[in-house]
Amino acid sequence: MASLKGGLMHKIYLVSPYIDHKYTSPHLSLEYIKFYLMDHGYQAEIIDCVYCKDLDDVISKLNEGENPIIGVTAYTRERFHAYAIIRKIRLEIPDSHIVVGGRHFSCLSEETLMNLPEVDIVVRGEGEITFKEICDSVYRNTDFNKILGISFRSGTEIVHNPDRPLESNIDKFRYFDKNFLPDPKRYILAATFQRMANFEMKFFEVMTTRGCPNSCVFCSLKSNKARYRSIDNIIKEIEEKIEITGVRNVKFIDPSLTISKNYVVELCDRIIEKKLNIKWDCYSRVDVDIELLKVMKKSGLIGVEVALESGSPRVLKAIKKKISLAQVERFCEAAYSLGIRLHVFCMISLPNEKIEDVDMTISMIRKLSKYIYSLSGLQATRILPDALIYNIAKERNILPSDFSWFEPYENQIDPRISSGYYKNVPLYLEHLTTEDILRKIGEFESFTRTEMASFYSFKRALKRNLKIDSIKKMSLRDIRDKAYKAYIMIGTAYRNKQKEQFLKFYD
Fold it and tell me: In the chain, how many domains are there?
């Protein structure tokens, strides 16, 4: 297989497609690749299409260099924007080298090369080393046969090279450098994090691990094992971000920080030893040693986010959650007793779930409400191509046999069931009708308003609904309903004042 057309100068661009929601954090996967390339002698520029007026502006930028190497990443919800930019790049810059990666393309490598002839290479799995080797090959004008973890065409044949083994030493990879900070006009290094406070607190984010060894069927954040950055590496990043931002609040964004007790204990010990004096928040499973929570609290833990998903043991088994309701209750009681603010996620319309199972979820939340500080809204389960639920949906004819991730698609579901940002992602609708889901979401929200609202949650809701775009879309009935809900939330906030006082951050 001959390499792509070579050249003396190849500018390297890493492109994040347009999406309807502007994120204030840098695109981590592209930052990882950019810095890995930099560490190996290459220079790459990230282009976030959210901040471009239109595709012509993007093309104009990409066209600055001869035969550019262009990496495009995408999540499933932004796939159509990714397809559009890929097609336009090939049309306008025919000699470009188009490489795609990210979860969506990675799990659909065969389909991508069949449906997008504009794409030259699909990167499967983690991209840092693989993308660097692709750049090496283009610059040296060598073939791709020995590059692990890629798929490409050889004539009319699609070739899938062997998978790349996971890199065990993830200190090789970085997404942050204090000497190369992201554009402050676009990205905020320390952003307001609202779920865990009744006042505004700014947090900066830190990622400590890669991979999740669990196998929840609805989730794409999975791998055979978790890998860990060295504690020294993490502490250095925290210290540098404190220095740059003046903020001492940390949000650990790992899918579950508490996978390894020994690792977390070592991290907490070092935080205390270094006298970092930070307050921090993380995601965790509920099946952890309660003694670990105490260690975490001592080092500055103020909030934990956990996923209950369902209050039905039958559904928990179906989704391979591998937790029990007893563990959930024990964890919630312990977090509350330690003064740790608890945020809980739940889902609806999961595999095997029926009305009685949803009722069990609502009942469980009612039972635990005295321990829970805040809840995320109940939304229907989405089908993603890199999650086990995709195969379940096809086996049970929830998705048609000819469903394609490359054909135009938009679900016609009420936006109250699933966020409008996910209109092009199919929902898992098995035993529950949309009417069932709407009714149960209504019950869940009613309980949240009447039992769990705080003054700060009321303030957030008020700010969200007073946006001009939101007001323009409201009918008189909507305004009346929202006014009634606000009245209920204020009353609930007064009643919950005692819980607010108990769960103080600064004891």
Answer: 3
Q: Which long-range contacts (CB under 8 A, 24 or more apart) does 44-47 make?
A: 44/12, 44/13, 44/14, 44/71, 45/11, 45/12, 45/13, 45/14, 46/13, 46/14, 46/15, 46/16, 47/13, 47/14, 47/15, 47/16
86 and 109 both lie in a single domain: yes
Residue (of 89, 60, 64, 90) closest to 10 by Cα position: 64
Contact at 8 Å (CB) between 132 and 423?
A: no
Residues 397 and 505 in one domain: no
Q: Is 172 within a domain?
A: no
Residues 426 and 492 in one domain: no
Furthest C-alpha separation in the chain? 71
For the stretch 58-93, pLDDT in tens is 999 999 878 999 999 999 999 999 999 999 999 999
CATH number at residue 383: 3.20.20.70
Residue 456: its pLDDT value, please? 41
| Domain containing residue 470 | 453-507
Say yes or no: 34 and 112 in one domain: yes
List phi, psi (to 5°) of 144. Answer: -100, 5
In a domain, residue 7? The reply is: no
The pLDDT value given to residue 11: 93
Question: Residue 280: which of 298, 306, 262 has the closest Cα?
Answer: 298
Residue linked to tokens 């959650």: 321
d(CA 227, CA 166): 9
Position 249 in a domain: yes
pLDDT of 187 reads 84
Cβ(60)–Cβ(68) below 8 Å: no
Residue with tokens 């952890």: 288
Q: Last residue of some domain: 160, 179, 212?
A: 160
Which residues lie below 8 Å from residue 249, measured CB to CB, with a gap of 6+? 190, 193, 201, 202, 203, 204, 278, 279, 280, 281
Mean pLDDT of 369-382: 90
The answer to the question of residue 247 being in a domain is: yes
For residue 279, report the phi and psi dihedrals to the nearest 5 degrees: -110, 140
Q: How many residues does the chain have?
A: 507
- Which of 435, 437, 348, 430 lies closest to 393 in space, CA to CA? 430
